[in-house]
Amino acid sequence: MNLPELKEVQVFSRFLFYVRTFFHQKGYIEVETPLLNPFATPEPYIDSFQIVSDKNYYLITSPEFNLKTLLKTYQTNLFQIAHVFRKGDESKHHKQEFLMLEWYHLNYNEFQIIEEIKELLQYLSLNINEFEKIKQFHIVSMKQLFNDYLNTNYDKESLIQIIKENRLVENKKILTLDKEDYDDLFFIVFLTLIEPKLETDSPLFIYGYPKELRAYSKINENLPEESRRFEMYWKNLEIANGYCEIIDQKEQINQFKKEYEKRKKLNKPIFPISQSFLNSFPLPDCAGVSIGLERLYMAFRNINDITKISFSGKFY
Question: Are 307 and 297 in contact (CB under 8 A)?
């Protein structure tokens, strides 16, 4: 049995303690919501584990639906540290079971929640001697990244042109690019030509994702081609994903329908949605974010292998 070193276990324990302390000091309520539910995420590129039982149950990929249900009920800021489960290949940066920190702040927008993430990271760096001290943060729009690295925009026609010019797919597929879904085209370009070049020695926040990648975020009313979604990268790791959240039920249902269509196209199963979550709309104005805690810890400690700190899969 190849377990993490005792020193890392001790530091990780203090890490969790100070994460909780930060939120308690700010007046958040910590909640525990079920890991096993009769519903699952419809997100097309996230796959849930189904439990063998007399009924269909699924392990959570995020506590999002349950937390938003409680947010509507209690009308107060909430957070949870939860074990989450996502099917997929395991690597140095990903385990199928990992710890997620997720929180929601009432009457915040995406930029205010980014500031709160900065507060959290500075708090952790100052209170844990073994952690790297953060000297600066960077924030940039997705539109600016496309302009800086590719001198273009992220509309579909521009993406197709970039893919052709850089020969990012086999020649036989180029003629069908115009029929590809926008998100597939975007990620071919972003993951190949932009993400590997990002300067992430310091935490980097990217905001203003294209509306087609909005997930459960609002659309920017002033820039309707953009969504109010952001992500944070640090040490070449994607660590945080946050939104100024959709609060209208019809808008949320429309997003679910789009995700169902994508799952069907990918020949993936369609899962039931939480009725409690849908019945919670309209949600209060809020922003929320999820953070992979092992990845955040790895960035603070300059560790490049999640197996050095995770107990997941160690007890087979």
Answer: no
Q: What are 300-311's pLDDT values in tens digits? A: 999 999 988 887
CA–CA gap between residue 151 and residue 137 (Å, rounded): 24
The CATH H-level (homologous superfamily) assignment of domain 6-137+229-308 is Bira Bifunctional Protein; Domain 2 (3.30.930.10)
> How many angstroms separate the CA atoms of 96 and 214, rounded?
24
Residue whose C-alpha is closest to residue 293's, from 16, 14, 3, 8: 16
Q: Tokens 């844990």 correspond to what residue? A: 128
CA distances from 190 to 114, 147, 242, 248 (A): 22, 12, 18, 30
Pairing verdict, β 78-85 and 29-30: parallel
- The per-residue pLDDT for 231 is 98
Q: In whole angstroms, give the CA distance from residue 311 to residue 267.
A: 33
The pLDDT of residue 178 is above 90:
no
